[in-house]
Amino acid sequence: MEQKWWHDAVVYQIYPRSFCDSNGDGIGDLNGIRSKLDYLQELGVDVIWLSPVYQSPMDDNGYDISSYQAIAPEFGTMQDMEALIAEAKQRGIRIVMDLVVNHTSDEHSWFQQACESKDSPYRDYYVWRDAKPDGSAPNDLDSIFGGSAWQWHEPTQQYYIHLFSKKQPDLNWENPKVHDEVHRMMNWWIDKGIGGFRLDVIDLIGKEIDKGITGNGERLHPLLKQMNQATFGGKDLLTVGETWGATPEIAKLYSAPERDELSMVFQFEHITLTWKDGDKWQPIALDLPEFKRVLTKWQLELADQGWNSLFWNNHDLPRAVSKYGDDGVYRTKSAKMLATVLHGLKGTPYIYQGEEIAMTNVKFERLEQYKDIESLNFYKVRTQAGVSHEEMMHALGENGRDNARTPMQWSAAPQAGFTQGTPWIEVNPNYTEVNVEDDQASSDSVYRYYQSLIALRKRYRAIVHGDFIPVLEQHDKVFAYLRTEGETRLMVVANFSGESLTVDLSEFSQSSAEALLSNSGRTTFDFNKLELKPYDAFMIKLSE
Ligand code: GLC
Ligand code: CA
């Protein structure tokens, strides 16, 4: 496989609204991010994936764009954006923009003009259909944010489709003019010197509405090939698609290099394992054997074809340490365990802001504390359907998106040092213990552990390119694997449980082991009878 810079890279995701507020209005902004570039450089990351900062009425916190070539005033100006790109570049960090082109905001001028009349030249930029004879919606497609995906537009007497909120009308990707507009806009950003794109819900752009098909429509891959050729193809940029429905077979269609589509995709098969029957609002406990089976499958299937994105959380998901570790007594230890497992796998690791200090879920007590449109919509839909308030509050506490969106905890100062004003969403009350300043001052620093993991990635090619070989595959509490390249053999062993246990790794008893990193300070390894304390994890180098 041809080697690319983004194989070696580690990506850090910033949710701008919640990262750092420079002017006291309670909303994180571009100048706040600029003030933290040294922090990110020291961590060692190569790329920032910036969630949307474009002009937007913020119905979905910026994933509803009203102008693609303007910055939302609450985030700053285009000059601030250019300065961020340049200052990041000086530190060896590239900025990956979030490309949201499945839909726009209903306040985008295209949509506003489309609404003027059925004959508007912009009408076909969106998807309109007549009502059924009885006045009802054209079909029963549901919005991903709850309720019907169809919104009646009284003035022009047709429905338009919105797979997300009604303020996020879907673009019509069957219209070549839409392709031209989007490609032109992407090239405009590429010319600004960005490092690539994260393509929001990109698997939906090939939708075939009248057949009720939303994800993975027939036109999807041809559209991506066309986009590749018209924009980022041959430009050595990182492109990562958000693809909820991807199987390994589908992921190869996107990311096999000879197909000229994307660098990689985010797959969510390991994530949805804690959703009962695929329903996010029915959280269930993690089944580690299943989790291992899924991740192992992805490692093996994409070994020589395509490329994995590695992540435990993002701005749509609960905090990793709360979901897969223990956010109580073992908060820092289990966070390091999770980091070891993720960064040891083959693929490009993504760190979500705050993960590097083991920030936790917030679990608000009152509904009013939640701000996320998806959470609030579903609270309404489900309680109206008979689910109890308590059950929905539990679900929001487990899987609601605001868990990831409370402000970044910089210090024990008021509002966690995120803002001088009142934050747009409450800070997690645990900021007095969980914050960057205290973490960095601690001998137990999670940030420094991430630094070490990133440094190891730069030192050992086997971490980036080595083969993945599962170890202790049948074990129901321990995740272990080898990464091998030529003579180099690295092994990761991680206890995913709060129990002490002993494992038999006698097949390695002829080897000697050098500890590269461990979350317990361990330096000796008795493979015949390897004792693991709760959440113990390490990466070692084996030699004969
Ligand atoms: C993606 C984003 C999410 C957003 C949705 C609609 O899933 O990650 O935050 O709400 O698309 O744009
Ligand atoms: Ca601000």
Label this structure with key terms.
544 residues, alpha/beta, 8-stranded parallel beta sheet, 5-stranded antiparallel beta sheet, 28% helix, binds alpha-D-glucopyranose, binds calcium ion, Alpha-glucosidase, Glyco_hydro_b, alpha-amylase activity, glycosidase, GH13_cat_dom
Description of the structure:
By secondary structure, the protein is α/β, with parallel strands linked by helices. Helices cover 28% and strands 18% of the residues. It has 16 helices and 22 strands. The strands form 6 sheets. It has an 8-stranded parallel β-sheet. A 5-stranded antiparallel β-sheet has the order 16-17-18-22-20. A hairpin with a 2-residue loop joins strand 12 and strand 13. It is globular and about 75 Å long. The structure holds alpha-D-glucopyranose and calcium ion. Residues 60, 63, 100, 164, 200-201, 242, 315-316 line the site of alpha-D-glucopyranose (GLC). The site of calcium ion (CA) has 6 residues, from loops.
Distance between the termini: 29 Å
* Average pLDDT number: 98
Structural class given helices, strands, pairing?
Answer: alpha/beta
Q: Which sheet architecture does the biggest sheet show?
A: 8 strands, parallel
Major sheet: arrangement of strands: 11-10-9-5-2-1-15-14
Proportion of β residues? 15-25%
Radius of gyration: 23 Å
Small molecules in complex: alpha-D-glucopyranose, calcium ion
**Uncertain ranges:** none
Portion of residues within helices: 25-40%
Q: What is the number of E strands?
A: 22
